[in-house]
């Protein structure tokens, strides 16, 4: 999708190479590429256009194709308020419902209820127009109308959902207009053109529907071809269609005025006289005189009406009982404005098809009575009428063609709604005052010889209304088939719905060919329904949903008071917008609650799809502003104090290491974090890049993106550039989070290569991180062998999560397995809890107490108490401790600072050779007593480290040595090395270290024996020593403790209770 053009900052694609060489503004010359001069900015603004290619430009492209193609200059928009907004809105609002259904609605619902329907619907559109005017005048609105306004105000998710609903509404509106066209054609113009003819009266409805389907499909095909060939023909005919609408309305008012001054006194055959049998209206198709019998040459003969109710024309024939008992009367269909008929039609007067069995006998249903073809009630009438007030977006859809859109759209739209509201209200009153109620309830004009009811009121001829309404419906259908594909094309080109992208393409000039094809297919669905009364509520839902979100967009922007919300239209208020939104929602459920639910379900599915799969767009929409305000409000209310124990959950700070390509070294750690949270709580992914932010800015942003997309983790990424890793991780632990939304748990991976590393920084950083989390009262989780942990797509089978509860840490060890089992990866795993009992503990009572404790915690787990018997320290433990301390002492002697190696390279080489000799002597002396492989591995690593240091030394010599100085330094270092080796051979292990090693060895034996096959082992993590001199020994203790286990999670509590037995 092409980017929206902008004349503002950082839009320098067309200005590259235009360097500033003046003297007056030399102070700013280095920033001219990104921050242009005000003079050039104003020049761009004067020539700025952000308007999409419209129909006019498309047709000019068609005309330009040829061998002598010349590029025509694009004309500036020149349409004013009247031509550009008022008349298009008038044409789209007035249409098929006014001519075909308004009289029936007035006759069925009565004048008062009809006025209520008109006032409700017109109030809804007026309030929506006010909100739309505010949005439309808040900056430039390109072609796209309501979709553009909603998507840029409420975001791509709401914009796509409502845009597609508006598209569906426009498409079904095309179906409704085509059905109206065919109904006028087959019912009032050429009834003989019907293909399907009913032989029986009960088959008439089905025959009409089949005719509507056949002719509607043909009409849709013809209109689609017209739109495909060239929209310029539709534009040229628009004024003709508008003239038909205006002339038809003027003819209605002229007819009403004529009835006031000259009450009609027409004979029966002029269709103004209605024939009633009792109180039932008769269909005036097959008889000329409303008489049972008449005198001809002093002889009483039966009429055609007699033969419709009797089995023979004889006077003694058997007739219908109701026909026999009731007289035939004649009333005037249009008594006139001064007749007082309005008093009779003031309130509800319904004649439903469901009432026919109660009023008529089983045989009466086949008699030529006029009755409604559907069951009517107030809410249904609202749904049928509402499409007659849609079309208010016609002006905003043409915003690209307006001379001054911010002035024309509000004035033209509101004036058009006011005009149509006056027309509808006056029509309801005038119809009720001029036309008899039984005629108004005659939907298809059967009582007036099949004429259009509103047509018999018009002056000078009913054909003015018939022809005018026919062309009006044709024009509205063409406009719908023209606008709907372009709306779909605009949505597709925005790229927010991936599967619609194919509909963004079309002909070479941009005509939406594929979108037109889809529109025709959806429109055919409405035509196959074949009933105008059934299609109208469907499109009402989609239009009401669109208007609902226009009002919400305006209200949201007003309440948020975003700095960019500065509409030129000032006559709006958030309360009016909320009132309009509430009215739209109410009308949706009033019209049809099940259609409303279906429309909302469709919009919801589209919203979630765009949210899950759609392209990410940042349009500065109001939803982001609402989220920011809600987040600010929540953070302010959130107390700085720790949350209550019942609300505690791990808020994770995930410390990740990145490789040279900024890829995550342990992506399974992200997966484990997701599984541990089960989609809840806070996640901050933290990483550190060595260097300064000025030099690492691009790398920091790249690292942030790669960190979060590796495992699709939902959370926040925080990458810090620091001079060293230790300070960077310290900054993350201290500063990550905001206000009350700070992390309470740190998750990191075990430094598995700390032994093989030549540099002790890795394990020193790890121990310092442990100390800092303890000082910050934060929990710490350390995952060992994290690369073997399951991914989010794995499903672990039957197995166990083993918890080794050695010391109480606030209950975190109990809570973590429960949280893990909420995720589908660990759902089938069972929980086992092991605790350690000493010799003086009652293991049986401990097990009972632990089971009761778990019962109160509502945790399902197996409990086992492991007894640790006091035993003498083995020789293996003693020698293991000795080797650990001797290795530590040797490494300390071999570690010289980088400064010393640069200053004294030869001294370093001499010392390294001496230590290598001592190391060989040490290995030959102690090898029979200790485990050969362990000593070999450790000393091989040390040997390699020494070789590296020895090789690196001479490369960095920058000094000149005399022979005397060299001999003196060599003798001194040899003496120091020999003394150090003698100290190593004579040293004895520290008793405290021996006891710690004994604990690690014995506990490791028990854990390996019980939990070697477990899917995950959770174990209390002992704290680092207070004396920093024993840090390396601490790492050895942990290594021995975890030896032989696959997946291990070391857990260190944050110093507070995190689980409770209370509700």
TrEMBL record:
Q: How does it sit in the membrane?
A: Multi-pass membrane protein
Q: What is its main location?
A: membrane
Protein location = Cell membrane
> Membrane-crossing residues?
79-102, 114-137, 158-179, 212-231, 238-257, 374-394, 414-440, 452-478, 514-532, 538-559, 571-588
Q: Does the keyword Transport apply?
A: yes
Query: How is this protein annotated for GO cellular component?
Result: plasma membrane; synapse
Q: Which NCBIfam families match?
A: 2a30
Q: Tell me which family the UniProt entry assigns to this protein.
A: Belongs to the SLC12A transporter family. K/Cl co-transporter subfamily.
The name under which this protein is listed is Solute carrier family 12 member 7b
Q: Which Gene Ontology molecular-function terms are recorded?
A: potassium:chloride symporter activity
InterPro entries in the cross-refs: AA-permease/SLC12A_dom, KCL_cotranspt, SLC12_C, SLC12A_fam
Q: Which GO terms describe its biological process?
A: cell volume homeostasis; chemical synaptic transmission; chloride ion homeostasis; potassium ion homeostasis; potassium ion import across plasma membrane
Which Pfam families does the record cross-reference, listed alphabetically?
AA_permease, SLC12
- What residues does the Amino acid permease/ SLC12A domain cover? 85-257, 370-653
Keywords, A to Z? Answer: Cell membrane, Chloride, Glycoprotein, Ion transport, Membrane, Phosphoprotein, Potassium, Potassium transport, Symport, Transmembrane, Transmembrane helix, Transport
**Domain SLC12A transporter C-terminal: from-to ranges:** 667-782, 793-867, 988-1063
* Region annotated Disordered, chain positions: 1-20
Q: Please give the catalytic activity noted in the UniProt record.
A: K(+)(in) + chloride(in) = K(+)(out) + chloride(out)
């Amino acid at each position: 999708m092409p980017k929206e053009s902008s004349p503002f900052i950082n839009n320098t694609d067309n200005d590259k190479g235009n360097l500033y060489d003046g003297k007056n503004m030399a102070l700013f010359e280095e920033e001219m590429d990104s921050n242009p001069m005000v003079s050039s900015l104003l020049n761009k603004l004067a020539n700025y256009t952000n308007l999409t290619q419209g129909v006019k430009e498309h047709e000019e492209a068609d005309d330009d194709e040829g061998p002598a193609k010349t590029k025509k200059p694009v004309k500036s928009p020149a349409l004013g308020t009247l031509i550009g907004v008022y008349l298009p809105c008038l044409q789209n609002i007035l249409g098929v419902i006014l001519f075909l259904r308004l009289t029936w609605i007035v006759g069925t619902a009565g004048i008062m209820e009809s006025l209520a329907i008109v006032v409700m619907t017109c109030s809804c559109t007026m309030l929506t127009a006010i909100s739309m005017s505010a949005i439309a005048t808040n900056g430039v609105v390109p072609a796209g109308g309501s979709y553009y306004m909603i998507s840029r105000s409420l975001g791509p998710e709401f914009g796509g959902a409502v845009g597609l609903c508006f598209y569906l509404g426009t498409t079904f509106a095309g179906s409704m207009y085509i059905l109206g066209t065919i109904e006028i054609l087959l019912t009032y113009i050429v009834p003989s053109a019907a293909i399907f003819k009913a032989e029986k009266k009960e088959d008439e409805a089905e025959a009409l529907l089949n005719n509507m389907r056949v002719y509607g499909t043909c009409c849709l095909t013809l209109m689609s071809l017209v739109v495909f060939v060239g929209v310029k023909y539709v534009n040229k005919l628009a004024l003709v269609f508008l003239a038909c609408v205006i002339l038809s309305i003027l003819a209605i008012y002229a007819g009403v005025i004529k009835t006031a001054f000259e009450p009609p006194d027409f004979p029966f055959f002029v269709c103004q006289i209605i024939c009633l049998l009792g109180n039932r209206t008769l269909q005036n198709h097959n008889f000329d005189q409303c008489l049972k019998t008449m005198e001809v040459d002093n002889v009483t003969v039966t009429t055609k009406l007699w033969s419709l109710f009797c089995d023979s024309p004889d006077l003694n024939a058997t007739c219908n009982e109701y026909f026999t008992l009731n007289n035939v009367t004649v009333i005037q269909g249009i008594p006139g404005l001064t007749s007082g008929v309005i008093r009779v039609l003031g309130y509800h007067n319904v004649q439903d098809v469901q009432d026919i069995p109660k009023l008529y006998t089983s045989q009466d249903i086949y008699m030529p009575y006029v009755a409604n073809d559907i069951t009517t009630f107030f809410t249904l009438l609202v749904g049928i009428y509402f499409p007659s007030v849609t079309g208010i977006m016609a002006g905003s859809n043409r915003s690209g063609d307006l001379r001054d859109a911010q002035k024309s759209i509000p004035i033209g739209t509101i004036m058009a709604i006011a005009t149509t509201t006056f027309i509808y209200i006056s029509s309801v009153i005038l119809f009720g005052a001029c036309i008899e109620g039984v005629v108004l309830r005659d939907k298809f004009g059967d009582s007036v010889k099949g004429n259009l009811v509103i047509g018999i009121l018009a002056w000078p001829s009913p054909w003015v209304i018939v022809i005018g309404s026919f062309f009006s419906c044709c024009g509205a259908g063409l406009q719908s088939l023209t606008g709907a594909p372009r709306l779909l094309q605009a949505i597709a080109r925005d790229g927010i719905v991936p599967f619609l992208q194919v509909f963004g393409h079309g002909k070479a000039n941009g005509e939406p060919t594929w979108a037109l094809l889809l529109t025709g297919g959806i429109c055919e669905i409405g035509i196959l329904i074949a009933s105008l009364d059934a299609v109208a509520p469907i499109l009402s839902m989609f239009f009401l949903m669109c208007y609902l979100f226009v009002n919400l967009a305006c209200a949201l922007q007003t309440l948020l008071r975003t700095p960019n919300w500065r509409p030129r239209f000032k006559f709006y208020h958030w309360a009016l917008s909320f009132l309009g939104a509430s009215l739209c929602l109410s009308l949706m459920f009033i019209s049809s609650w099940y259609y409303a639910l279906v429309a909302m379900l469709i919009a919801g599915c589209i919203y979630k799809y765009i949210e899950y799969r759609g392209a990410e767009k940042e349009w500065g929409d109001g939803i982001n502003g609402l989220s920011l305000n809600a987040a600010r409000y929540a953070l302010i209310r959130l107390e700085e104090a720790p949350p209550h124990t019942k609300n505690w959950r791990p808020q994770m700070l995930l410390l990740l290491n990145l490789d040279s390509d900024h890829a995550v070294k342990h992506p399974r750690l992200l997966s484990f974090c997701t599984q541990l949270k089960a989609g809840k709580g806070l996640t901050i992914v933290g990483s550190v890049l060595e260097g300064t932010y000025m030099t690492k800015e691009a790398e920091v942003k790249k690292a942030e993106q790669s960190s979060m997309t590796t495992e699709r983790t939902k959370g926040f990424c925080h990458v810090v550039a620091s001079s060293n890793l230790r300070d960077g991780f310290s900054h993350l632990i201290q500063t990550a989070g905001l206000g009350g939304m700070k992390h309470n748990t740190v998750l990191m991976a075990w430094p598995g290569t700390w032994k093989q590393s030549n540099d002790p920084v890795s394990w020193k950083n790890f121990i310092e991180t442990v100390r800092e989390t303890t000082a910050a009262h934060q929990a710490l989780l350390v995952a060992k062998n994290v690369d073997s942990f399951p991914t989010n797509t794995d499903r672990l089978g039957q197995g166990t999560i083993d918890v080794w509860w050695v010391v109480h840490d606030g209950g975190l060890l109990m809570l973590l397995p429960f949280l893990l089992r909420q995720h589908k990866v660990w759902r089938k795993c069972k929980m086992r809890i092991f605790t350690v009992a000493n010799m003086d503990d009652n293991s049986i009572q401990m097990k009972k107490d632990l089971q009761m404790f778990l019962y109160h915690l509502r945790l399902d787990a197996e409990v086992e108490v492991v007894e640790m018997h006091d035993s003498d320290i083995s020789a293996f433990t003693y020698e293991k401790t000795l080797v650990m301390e001797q290795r530590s002492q040797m490494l300390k002697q071999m570690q010289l600072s980088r400064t010393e190696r640069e200053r004294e390279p030869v001294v370093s080489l001499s010392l390294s050779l001496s230590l290598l000799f001592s190391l060989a002597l040490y290995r030959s002396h102690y090898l029979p007593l200790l485990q050969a492989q362990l000593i070999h591995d450790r000393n091989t690593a040390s040997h390699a480290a020494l070789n590296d240091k020895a090789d690196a030394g001479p490369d960095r010599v920058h000094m000149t040595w005399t022979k005397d100085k060299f001999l003196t330094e060599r003798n001194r270092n040899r003496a120091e090395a020999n003394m150090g080796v003698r100290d190593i051979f004579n040293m004895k292990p520290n008793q405290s270290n021996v006891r710690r090693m004994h604990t690690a060895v014995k506990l490791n034996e028990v854990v390996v024996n019980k939990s070697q096959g477990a899917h995950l082992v959770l174990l209390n993590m002992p704290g680092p020593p207070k004396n920093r001199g024993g840090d390396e020994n601490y790492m050895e203790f942990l290594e021995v403790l975890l030896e032989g286990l696959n997946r291990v999670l070391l857990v260190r509590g944050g110093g507070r209770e995190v689980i409770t037995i209370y509700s």
